[in-house]
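Supplementary Note 3. Input sequence used for the single-chain structure prediction.
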Amino acid sequence: MRLSILLVEDNPADADLLLDSLTQDDGSSVWQVRHVERLSEALQALEQQPVDVVLLDLSLPDSQELDSITHLQAVVPHLPIVMLTGRDDTQVAVQAVAKGAQDYLVKGQITTPLLTRAIHYAIERTQILKQLQASENRFRAVFNQTFQFMVLLSPTGIVLEVNQALASVEGTGLAELLDRPIWQTKRWGYTESIQQWMKTAIATAAQGQLVREEIQVLAPQGELRWLDFSLKPLTDETQQVVLLIAESHDISDRKLIEAKTLETLEQERELTQLKADFVAMASHELRTPLTIIRMATELLEKYDDQLTAAKRAQHFERIHAAIAAMLHLLDEVLLLGKVDSDGLRYEPAPLDVADYCKEVIATLKLTTNSNHRIRFHCSQPQMQGELDQALVHHILTNLLSNAIKYSPDQGSVWLNVSCKGDQISFQVKDEGIGIPPQDQQHLFETFYRAKNVGKIQGTGLGLAIVRKCVELHQGQIHVESEVGIGTTFNVTLPRFSQQTQPELLPS
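The predicted structure, written as discrete structure tokens, is reproduced below.
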């Protein structure tokens, strides 16, 4: 099959010489040649029938030299073109090739072998370029259609190109990504540590190693997002790294699910531990009063007729005390249950703080049956506020009861109340055994007890309840303690309820 050639030459003498060069010595030809004299005629001919190659004169009456190449390729893309000119001008030759011509021949120097070789080379080069273009188109399709973010980098980390997925996210900030080191972009340059990480990753990948890590970067909207990021080196035939391909996809949702799963597992672990602690505490704390009740009951049952009235009263007193201890434990458990289920409400009402503190102290003296002195001081004889009386009761009774419990017999306990601005402060101070420093950070945890309490009875619930009651008031609690010296709890509550404070606060 003969190759088809379109000769575009307006000089008849040059056209004849070229046609002779394409003719064999016997007058035959391996080419199918069509000759036109104008660019317009060439365009019309190409629209009617494609050709394998075009021999194009640089100077045509209806075209401005190199513009002819552009016009021809607009009609037939990737058209093999050999430029013909009467000037041996290297600069023009380079411009012609840059425009899309495959070769450049000077008319006075054309021979049959030279022309034949130029035609074949033009066709071959065009086929190679078409294959390269097809390959690039396939790469572009993958590069731009993937949902992952992709960036092409030089081995030194310069951003060469980004795919459509990343361009869509970056929006107007896309221009800030290109032609600069990736660690200087907003996404990767928001902290020095991230910049240094990226520089190290680039250096590692430039040595031919794959880099992959889950890392946080700054999104265009300003929030931090998690990415599964990889950096892959691309090498040439000599195994030199010529390109780095950065791929990433947003895994923030997955990270959030993982975090919530871990949080749920931790909550389940804490709940399991709480259940175990509760069983251990209840078994220990209930055993003693139950033992007392059983022994006192057996003695009354067996030796009732032999007991004096005083002894009988003593056993009944022990039974009542044991029952009261169990009821107190149950009350604490039920109260803590209300807190954890959001059943404990904050209901502020007018309260004379000084008078109420005196009532709490009087009740404690009767119920604790201790020899301790509770010293009360209030900075104002009448101190009005809007507090939840029930919550304040839990705060004061638990703190004062603990102060009495862990203080030496006949020791002193202080309750100091003061008012400053819109804050009321309660200070409970004792001269008891104190709290070791390592235990102080765990004091308000449920069922937690300090290591130095020894055989002193307790549930580890009181301070957890106190903290919840303080939080419902949107107040604060602090502790200062020294082993062997004593402990001071400072509670600060808003004097008046806030309009913005919800009726029911989460625990």
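DSSP finds 13 helices and 17 strands in the chain. The first strand starts at residue 3 and ends at 8.
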